[in-house]
């Protein structure tokens, strides 16, 4: 049987993690502003359902990557506050993963939004 209280508590903890991500992490705020710009532009351009699904998926993936990166950085800082070459490599790779995801999202966004902008203005 499912313990509903445990499930609800897990959702509350996860929700707090999301709140903390956007409250304390500057890069998450930057990604949030970019997402708002993309969503606003998408509304203005009148995107179709599939295009919305692709854009929203990309936004979610970037935020998820940022959350995992932040968690790894905090764990690394907890393990050792001192500089260590392995910790640096871990942090660099995790932030590189966010950059890969952000560049992928920007590419998908450019393909979708760019084609609509070209149709509208040219």
From TrEMBL:
Source organism (scientific name): Spirosoma rhododendri
Please classify the protein's predominant subcellular localization into one broad category. membrane
Q: Where does a divalent metal cation bind?
A: 25, 73
Instruction: Identify its membrane topology class.
Output: Multi-pass membrane protein
GO MF, one term, reads: ATP binding
Q: Does the keyword Protease apply?
A: no
Q: Which PANTHER family match?
A: DIACYLGLYCEROL KINASE
TM ranges: 93-118
Name the chain's protein: Diacylglycerol kinase family protein
Q: Give a single Pfam family match.
A: DAGK_prokar
Q: Which residues bind ATP?
A: 25, 73, 91-92
Q: Which family does it belong to?
A: Belongs to the bacterial diacylglycerol kinase family.
Active site residues according to the UniProt entry: 66
Record note on cofactor: Mn(2+), Zn(2+), Cd(2+) and Co(2+) support activity to lesser extents.
Ordered alphabetically, the record's keywords are: ATP-binding, Cell membrane, Kinase, Lipid biosynthesis, Lipid metabolism, Magnesium, Membrane, Metal-binding, Nucleotide-binding, Phospholipid biosynthesis, Phospholipid metabolism, Transferase, Transmembrane, Transmembrane helix
User: Which cofactors are required for activity?
Assistant: Mg(2+)
| Annotated compartments | Cell membrane
Could you state one GO cellular component term attached to this entry? plasma membrane
